[in-house]
Amino acid sequence: MASDGHEAGSTPTWDLSNLYGGFDAADYTKHRAALREKAQELRRESRDESRRNDEPVAWLRACINLINEVSDLEENLASYAYCIYSCDTTDARALREINGIERDVLPAASARVHFRNGLRMLESKLDSILSDDDELDRYRFVLAEELHRQRHQMSPEEEDLAADLARSGADAWSRLQDAISSTLSNEWNPETGESKTVVELRSLAHDPDREVRQKAYELELDAWKRMETPIAFALNGVKGTSVALNDRRGYADAIEAAVADARITRETLQTLISVMEESLPVFRRYLSAKAKKLGLDRLAFYDLFAPVGTSRRNWSYEDARTTIVEVFGDFSDELGAFARTAFDHGWIDARPRKGKVGGAYCTSLPLAKQSRVLANYDGTFGGVSTLAHELGHAYHHEVLKDYPALLRDYPMTLAETASIFCEQLTFNRALSETGGAEKLAILETFLQDCTQVIVDILSRYYFEQALFEQRPHGELSPDDLNRLMLDAQRKTYGDSLYDHARHPYMWAVKVHYYIPSLSYYNFPYAFGALFGIGLYGLYEREGDEFPNRYRGLLEMTGSTSAEKVTAGAGFDISSPDFWRRGISVIERHIAEYEKTQS
């Protein structure tokens, strides 16, 4: 999996050689053995009632240190294995390693249950313990979260069983969707026998030729139709597991669990959703303007990503590198140097190829104190923006790399903070340096993304809400899932899309629905987008003083609530006015889009 080089014009694969020498190498097997050993040690320590009662400070220190060690080992090993698997989902060895790591860490999952129970026994004296120990006091917020989870956990035996069954249950259903979505294909050219995967077909949604976009869309839907039954079983399996576990753990519904994981209140979520709903006419105005620029009465789903404006520039990978390093460097020397390191040292896998998962992600390898970024670079400004986004995630990891695992674990609501901000840096620079048709193309990319994280995310939220309401009453058929998805899209896109040309299989496309530990993945993207836009506005006001403040905000993300992190930037996220300010920035760009000529 070594990189093929970074010369101008190349689209690289990443270099994993300085992480481990391979699955059979001494460094990898040493860490696998250490993971098993530390997980068992944590299991023993967490159950040691006499030590907890006689030496509560020593017990607490030992458990926290072991949790940090196990977390670092697991994340490092699992990220490495997934990097290999996600570039070739037919790699059976990588899949076995992922399964093996999940098995190795099972005792640690059991230990966390006992740790929380032990923490509950110490609750009356916990404040005194933390107040007398500066090192332990760093974990005050995290320990409060552990106590909250203790109130929503099953017995140790039940939690053990749930963790064990997950490997062959919900986690396996998740991998089924991953494997199908990365390899499913349809015939593109009958004369030559050329086929395209659904990932490749979806990428053609950006093609300037409407006939190509429509053909790709129809072939994609046909491909999903052929595989709808196993994928529907997968979704029912994942969500059925979530419903059962949420019920057993005493959550009123999946939202209650999701907002706790997001470190926000239910009221804050409802405020965000309400502002997203009231903003829909703003986005329909953009979609109407886009239809006019394309010479259409209204859009079909396959027009949502159609290019607008004449971008004469093909962004080579080297162009993307130069632009991002320069833009990041203008913000701060540290951010620019970090981006240069990522590009120069093979941290990025950007080349699309068969067997590789679609989309993009960033993963952290805490023992190496490095990250890796996967993308499917396509030479558009959108591709540049995606790289900037994922490198923002990587910078977030960089800022927190010297913190222990428990203080690096930030919620999804704050996970998008750095990524969206880095997108904003790149977008605003590009916008300021262009005019005419080129400017229109860049505005189009920005507004496409905003529409996805507000309008489309809201449709996915509605879909998941309906899915969770209906799943307790039985399994949903592919037709049921299609109906729920179309209803959700109709509520958000309204008349801006042709009713007969929506995308009923988005429930099969989006991998996030299939992550067993993560329900309602969707709203954090809207949260992150509007918070990122708010941070950029703060940067414009504060100038050179902002980078240090920004770094400090990122450092806070692992150790306090989203409300407190955003308050550190002077924002009140419980107020609809905060979210409306972000929408108003987008609305100004829509007005600019309407006036800009192609």
How would you describe the overall organization of this protein?
The protein has 28 helices and five strands. The chain has 598 residues and is mainly α. The chain has a domain of 149 residues: Oligopeptidase f, N-terminal domain (Butyryl-CoA Dehydrogenase, subunit A, domain 3, Up-down Bundle), CATH 1.20.140. The strands form two sheets. The chain has a three-stranded mixed sheet with strand order 3-5-4. A two-stranded antiparallel sheet has the order 1-2. A hairpin with a 4-residue loop joins β1 and β2. α1 runs antiparallel to α3. The chain starts with 25 loop residues before the first helix and ends with a helix.
Task: Describe the SSE topology.
Layout: H1 26-46, H2 49-54, H3 56-87, H4 92-104, H5 106-121, H6 123-131, H7 134-137, H8 140-150, H9 156-168, H10 170-183, E1 185-189, E2 194-197, H11 198-203, H12 210-226, H13 228-248, H14 254-262, H15 266-278, H16 280-293, H17 317-331, H18 333-344, E3 348-349, E4 361-365, E5 370-374, H19 381-400, H20 412-415, H21 417-432, H22 436-470, H23 478-493, H24 506-509, H25 523-542, H26 546-556, H27 562-567, H28 576-595
Parallel strand pairs: 3-5
Antiparallel strand pairs: 1-2, 4-5
Offer a quick outline of the entry.
With 598 residues, this protein is mainly alpha-helical. The protein has 28 helices and five strands.
Mean of the pLDDT scores? 93
- Biggest sheet features: 3 strands, mixed
Outline type:
globular
- Number of DSSP-assigned strands: 5
Query: Quick one: CATH class of the domain at 26-174?
Result: Mainly Alpha
> What is the helix fraction of residues, given as a range?
55-70%
Give the second-level CATH assignment, the architecture of the domain at 26-174.
Up-down Bundle
Q: Give the termini distance in whole angstroms.
A: 43 Å
- The low-confidence parts are 1-9
Fold-level CATH name of the domain at 26-174 = Butyryl-CoA Dehydrogenase, subunit A, domain 3
**Count the helices. How many?**
28
Q: Compute the gyration radius: what is it?
A: 24 Å
Could you state the CATH homologous superfamily of the domain at 26-174?
Oligopeptidase f, N-terminal domain
Portion of residues in beta strands equals under 5%
Largest sheet, spatial ordering of strands: 3-5-4
Helix and strand composition category: mainly alpha
